[in-house]
Amino acid sequence: MAAGTGMGTGMGARVRALPASPNWYSSRCSDVSSDGHLFGFAARHRVCLLDVAAAAPTFYGELIGHTDRISGFAFCHCPGHSGLCASSSDDGSVKIWDSGTLSPVLEYSLHQNAISALHWSPLVKDLIVSGDEKGVIVCYWHNRSDSQQFFPEPRTVFCLTCSPHHENLVAIGYKDGMVVIIDISRKREVVHRLRGHEDEIHSLAWCPVPGEERLPAWQDELQAPSEEGKVPNGELTQDTATRKGCYLASGSKDQTIRIWSCTRGRSVMTLKLPPTKRRGGAVDPAVKERIWLTVHWPAGHPSDIVSSAFGGELLLWNLTQPGKRKWTLLGSSEGQNHSRIVFNLSSVKHQDRELLFSISMDRDVKCWDLSTLDCSWTMPSLGGFVYSLAFSPVDTGCLAIGVGDSMIRVWNTLSINNIYDVKTFWQSIKSKVTALSWHPTKEGSLAFGTDDGKVGIFDTLSSSAKNKPPQISSTYHKKTVYTLAWGPPTPPLNSGEEGEQPSVTLYSCAGEGIVFQHNPWKLNGEANDINKVIRDTNSIKHKLPARTEVSWKPDGKLLALGNEDGSIEIFQAPNLKLLCTIQQHHKLINAIRWHHEHGSQPELSYLIASGSINATIYVHNLKSVVENSSENPLTVTEPFRTLAGHTAKITSLSWSPHHEGRLVSACYDGTAQVWDVMKEEPLCNYRGHQGRLLSVQWSPVDPDCVYTGADDFSVHKWHISKQEHTRPPQGKKSIELEKKRSIQPKVKAKKKKKPVGKSPGKQDANDAMNGDESMKEMLLEENGVSDQEGEKEAQEAEADKVSVTVSRDASSSACDYSSFSLPKPFVTQKAAPVKKDPPKEKPTPDASLKKRKPRSILPFSTLMDHRSKEELHQDCLRLAACLKTKDNNEDVSPDLKDCIHLGLFTDRDSLHKMIDMEGKHHLENGHAELFQQLMLWKGDMKGVLQAAAERGQLTDQLVAMSPMVGYQAWVWTVEAFAKQLCFQEQYVKAASHLLSIHKVYEAIELLKVNNFYREAIVMAKARLRPEDPVLKDLYTSWAALLEKDGHYSMAAKCYLGASSPYDAVKVLSKKGDVASLKTAAELALISGEEELSATLSLRCAQDLLLSRNWVGAQEVLQQHKTLFGQRLVFCLNELLCSCLSERNPCERKSPVPPCYHSWELNREAPFLDMVTQVWQNVLGMDTTEKATCAQEQLRSIEHPPSTSNTHPKQVLFHISHDLALAALSCHLGMWDEAVKSILGAVTRSFDAGNFTLMQEICSIILPEGCDELRDKLDSTNSQSMDACRSLEGFVAYRLLYDLWWNPPKESFGLQKAVLGPSEQTALEKSCVSGDPTPEETVHTAAEMGENLCNTTEVSKCETQSDSRTGSVDVADRQSKLKGCHVLLSEEMAALQNTQRDIAEVQETLAEMIRQHQQQRNNLQENTNGNTQGSNLEQSSETESDKPDLDSNQMNCKDEAKQPVTLPELTKQLLKAKQKLADFPDNLKVFPFPDVLECCLVLLHLGAQCPPELQEEALAVLRKHGAAGVYKKAARSFLT
C-alpha cells in the first residue's frame, strides 16, 4: 500500500472506509467512469475513488499527488479509455491519472492563475479543457503534448463543458452570468455570447441528443406564435438549422435554469426554481442556506433535466410537459434527500439502469436510480480530523466517531442492508469533537467533549434524535477536552444513599490539566475538580502535575491519571488514595488503557498500557502494587513489557476484547500496529491512511478487524490477516511515508488574497468547511509532520496530549475549524505564523534591501587604525611609553601630539583633543549633525546649542536634547528655534514649540499676526479660560478679515463664537440676497433680537415680492406677530396683482413665473370684501383686536410720495399698503379713514405718472363710482367730505379720458384729423411722465411684469378703443359726461393757477441762482446746487405744463431775457403766497385733477359733449386760462 500505488483493485475487499468529504463550490469535482465501475470525487487535495459496480459502494483507493485543494475532476468518456481521469488543483497543475493503478500518468501546469473548471472532451480522447479565475481557457492534447490558449472574456470562469456532438465547441459559464460558446478549431472564434442570467453560472449541460427539432411542445420565448405554424418556407430553413444545432442547459445562482438554442444563440426556455419544502433537513436553522444550482442532462433522458434545488433537494424537469409545473421531486420517502445544497451531479448507464450520483454540502455521496427516482445508497463522508472512536458497550457494533467538522457520526457497523448506516449529530456542538465515551450500561447515552472545552451527553436512540439537542454540562474546560471516562462516583458525589446518586459519573480531562467529575443527573450543577479530593485524602501540599489522560479500571476500583510530566498515578476508589506512581515515560502521556477482565487469566486485568509523545509503549503489571498493603505510595520504574518500533508519538491504544494480551496502537508515523504484548512482538502493521493516525478501536465483534481514524479525514476498517507488513516502517520506509504525507499542501510563501478554498462561490462563511478545511488542515499537517523534535520541546503546555492531536499541538490549534464557527478570513490570518520559510529564500530579500552603511562618527581615528602593520606596531609602542610616563605622574610625553587618535586609549584630556579634531573634520565636511553628536558625548551641549542657534541650524533633535543642559537653556533654545522657524515661515510649528515652554499667549499672538486664525482659536480655546478676552479678540479680528473678503457666513460663525449674535446677524444680512436675509432673520430670532429679525424678514419678503414669490414672502413674515399688518398688505398685493394681470393679460411673459397661493376666492364680492374674507379665513384675522392692531401697525409706516422715477412694483406695493388700510377701515366701519386711504392709493398712482394704473384701481375699487361711499360718510365731518370730493374728481377724471379715448366708431377717423400737434398736450399731460408718447409709459409698466396693458405702437386712441368695449350709444355717453361736472370747479381752477404762479417764480429764482453759481466756478459745477436746482425745476414742471417742452423752455428763455430783478421776483412770490393763503384750507388739503386740462378735454369732445357743459368749460377757460400753455391750447375754442 506504499505511496498510494499498492492500493490495487482488490483494495475494496480489504478496506471499508468513511472517506473525506467532497470539496464544495466546484462546478465539476466529481465524476463517474463511463463503464459504471468507479465514482471519483475531489476531497481536499486528493481524489477519493469508490467502487460503485455492486449494489453497495466500496472504498477503492485514492489518487495522491496534488499539494493544494483540487478544484476539478473528470473521467475520460471516450470508449476504451474509461480508466483515465484528470484533476486540476489550486497548485496550478492538471494531472492525468490511471485509476487502475492509482498512479499519475502525466502532469502539466499551463495556467498562471487558480484553475476553476475542467472537462475531458467526450469526443477527442486526449483533449482536456480547463479555465481559470482570470478567464484563460487552456486546451491540452496530451498524446502530442500540444496546447492552445483562448481568452474569450476577461471574467472569472465558473464552469465549462465540451459539446458531446461537435468536437470544437466548448460552452463556458462565468461568474457574472454570461455564457459563451467558443470554437477551439483553427477558427478560434466566439460562436455565441448568451446573455440572460444575472448571477454566477454554476453548471452547464449539453443535450445528449443533437439537433433542435426534438421538442415540439416547447414555447420559444422570443418567437411569435405565428412562426410555429406550418409555413413551408419557415419550416424548411428551420429544419436545416436545427439539424446542426444542439440545446444547452445552464443553471445559475439567480435561481433559474435556461435552455439555449445554439443555432439561434438565444434562450428558448426559462425554468424558475420552485420553493420546495425542506424535508428532514439536518442543518442548523441559523445557517442561511446558499443556493447552488447544478444541472445535469442524463444521456438516457433527452427530454428530462435533473437539477438541484433549495436545501439539497433534487428535481427532475420534464421539458416536454406543458403547463407551469414541469418538475418532480427525487426521493419519495423521508430522509432520502440531501439536507444541504448539492454541488455536482453525474450519471452513467450501468447494466439496465441509469444511475445518478450527487455530492452535497451535507457531506453525503448519494446514488439515485433515475427509473424509480429513489436513492439507491448513501455514502457518508467526513469533513475533519477523526479525533475519537468509541464502540458502545451496550449496543454492539455501534461506533461513535468524533470529527473535526463539529459533528458526531454514529455508525451501525453491523447493519446488513446498508453497510454505511450512519446517523449524524450536530446540535449545539459548534466545535471540533475531540473526545467520546459511551455510558457503560445505559443504551444510547454518548458523552462528548470538544475543542472549546464543552462537555455534553447525547441520547442517540431517541426517535427524534435528529432534532433533540444534547445536555450540556454547565462547567466548561478552559481548553480542549482530551479524554472522557465513565467511572464510579468519588467524593463529594458518593455520599448519598443508594439510588440518590448516579451509579457512574462522567470524568473529563482537558488541556488546562484539570479533571472534572460531572454528575450526569445534574449536568447544570457545578462539576468537581478531583484534585481537591486527591489533596485532602493524601494530604498533599506541593503543586499537582497537569493531567492529560484519565482511565478507570473496568471494575471501577482503580483510577489511572496520566500527567504532562510523563508520570502515571494510580489511585484507589472511592477516596482516591494514591497507591503508586509510574515513572517511565518522561514526556506527556497521550493514552492509557487497562486490559479487559473477561479472559481466562484474571491476573492480566492488572495490565495497564500507556503511550506518550515518546514512541515507545510501556505495559505495567500492577497486581503486586494493589496487593501490597504499605501505607506509603510506591514508585514503579521498571516496565512489565516494552513495545518498541514506532517512530513518532503514540496517539491511541486499544486492547483486543477477543484475545489476551493483544494490543493495537495508533501513531503519528501514519500506521497502526498490532502487538503480542506478552511476547513483546509486533504482529501486523496497517499503512492504508494518508496521514497521521489519531484514534484506534478493535472491533467488538470481529477478532480480525480494527477501525482507525486519521487526520486524512477518514475512518478505515481493515483486517489484520490481510496486511503485508508486520512491523512499523523503519529507516527508508519511514522516510517514504514521511514523504507521502509531506505531499500535503504547503502554505504558499506568498500570502494569497483568498487562501481558502479558491473555488468560485466560496461566499458563505458558514460553509467554511470543506472548501477550506483543506487549507487549515494542511497548515496543520505540514506542521505536525515536519518536526517532531520541535514538538518534544513544546511539551510544557498541554501541547501534546494526542488522541486530540491538533488541539494537543500548540502549533496546530489554529486549524480545522468547523463549519459553524468561523469566517474564512480567520484562516488567512492563522496561516502566517505556521508558515516556515525555506531558508534558501532568506538571503535574496536581504541582498535586495541592502542599505548603505551609515557614516562613521569617528572617521579620522578609524582611518588611523587602518594603516600599515608597521605603523600600528609603532602606535602600540608609543602608547605603552606614554601610559608608563603617565603612571610615573610625568607629563604626557610630547610624542602623542602627532598621534591624536591614541587619545582613545589614554586620559580624558587626550580624548577631548581627539573629539575636537574629529568635530572640526565633520564641520569642514558639512556634517553638522555628527559634530553635534560628538559634542553631546563630550558634554559640551551648551556650546553646540549656541553655535546652532547663531547659524540658524537648530533641529528638533537638538531641541529635544537641550533639557540636558538645564531648564533655562531649554527655554532659551526653544525660543531660538521658534524664531528660526518663523524665518522659515513655519509659524504653526513655531507656535507649538512656544506652547511647549508654556508661552501660550505668545504662541497665539504669533499665529494671529500671521493670519493663522483657525489654529490660533483652537489653541486659545484648548488652553485659556473661556472668559479670556484674547479669545473674543481672535474671533472678532478673524470675523473682520472674513467680512472684508466677503466670507459672510464664516464671519457670522465667528461673531457667534464671540457671543455677539447681533453682529452675526448684521454680517449675514450684508449680502442682501433672499437666502442670507432669511437666515439672518432666523438667527436674530434665535438670539432674541425680535425687532431686528422683523426688519430683516420684511426686507426678505420685499425681495421675494420683486421675484413675484408671494408664497415665500408669507412664509417669512409669519414668524413675527409684529408683521401681521405687513402680511395683510402682501396678501392684498397678491390679490391685486393677480386681478390686474387677469384684466390685462400680457403678451410678453415675464422671466419669472409668479408664485401665487391657491386660495379660494369669492370673485362675486367687491374687491375689498374679497380681500377681507381671505384675511379672515387664511391669515386668521378673526377678531376686531387683531384688525385694530394691524391697522395701528400699518399706520405707523409712512411711505414717501411716488414720482415718475419710482419702480412700478414699489408703486404697487405702496398702493397695496394704502388699500390694506382702506380695507381694514371698511372692516372696522371707519369710513372716513377708508376714503382717505382710497384717495391716497389713487393719487399715488396718479403722481407716479401711471395713468392706466390709476384707471384700473378706480375701476377695481370703485366700479360703481363714489355714491355708495358718500352715503356712508359722516356729512358733518368736512374733512372726509373734502376727501370724498377729491376722490370723485379723480373718478370723473378717469371717466372723462375714458370717453374721449373711446369715441363712437364712426367719429373715429375724424377725431384723429382734428387733433393737431399742439393739442396733444392735454392728452400727454395725463401721463405725467416726461416721455414723448404715452404708449411708452404703458410699456414700462408692462416690462416690469405688472403689465397693466401692453399697448402697441398705434396712437393711444386706437389702442384704447380696441381694448375697451367699442361704441357706447351717445345718450349713455352724455349722461356719463354730466357726471364730469364735478371737475369744473372755479375755485379749484383759481387755486391751481396761484400754485402755478408760485412754482413759476420759484423756477425763475432757481434759474438765477444756477447761473450765478455757474459763473462762480467755471471749472466744475457744484453738484449740490445742481441737484437742488433740478429738483425745483422738476416740481415746477410737474405742477404746470411739462409736455410742451419747447414752448415751456421758450417761455423761460423769454423771461430770462427780460431782466427781472431779484426784489421784483420776491415781491411776486409774496403776492402769490398771500393769494394762496386767502383760499379756504379745505381746498388745499387734498389733490384734485387739473381743472383747465379737463375743460380742454371736454371741448375736444365736441359734439359728444352736452352744450351746457361746453359753455361752462369755456367760461372757466376764459376766466383762468391766461397762462401761456392754456392760452395757446384754448385759442381755437375761444376765437
Write the layout of secondary structure elements.
Layout: H1 11-14, E1 16-18, E2 30-32, E3 38-43, E4 46-51, E5 58-64, E6 70-75, E7 84-89, E8 94-98, E9 103-108, E10 115-120, E11 127-132, E12 137-141, E13 146-150, E14 157-162, E15 169-174, E16 179-183, E17 189-194, E18 201-206, H2 232-244, E19 247-252, E20 256-261, E21 266-272, E22 295-296, E23 304-308, E24 314-318, E25 327-329, E26 342-350, E27 353-360, E28 364-369, E29 374-380, E30 386-391, E31 398-403, E32 408-412, E33 422-425, E34 433-438, E35 445-450, E36 455-459, E37 471-472, E38 481-487, E39 505-510, E40 515-518, E41 528-529, H3 530-538, E42 547-552, E43 558-563, E44 567-572, E45 577-583, E46 589-594, E47 607-612, E48 617-621, H4 623-627, E49 634-636, E50 641-643, E51 650-655, E52 662-667, E53 672-676, E54 681-686, E55 693-698, E56 705-710, E57 715-719, H5 731-742, H6 770-786, H7 788-793, H8 825-834, H9 843-848, H10 859-864, H11 869-887, H12 908-924, H13 928-938, H14 941-951, H15 956-961, H16 967-983, H17 987-996, H18 1000-1009, H19 1013-1023, H20 1029-1044, H21 1048-1057, H22 1061-1069, H23 1074-1086, ...
Parallel strand pairs: 45-49
Antiparallel strand pairs: 1-57, 2-3, 3-4, 4-5, 6-7, 7-8, 8-9, 10-11, 11-12, 12-13, 14-15, 15-16, 16-17, 18-19, 19-20, 20-21, 22-23, 23-24, 24-25, 26-27, 27-28, 28-29, 30-31, 31-32, 32-33, 34-35, 35-36, 36-37, 38-39, 39-40, 40-41, 42-43, 43-44, 44-45, 46-47, 47-48, 48-50, 51-52, 52-53, 53-54, ...
Helix pairs in contact: 12-13, 14-16, 16-17, 17-18, 18-19, 19-20, 20-21, 21-22, 22-23, 23-24, 24-25, 25-26, 26-28, 26-29, 27-29, 28-29, 29-30, 30-31, 30-33, 31-33, 33-44, 39-40, 39-42, 44-45, 44-46
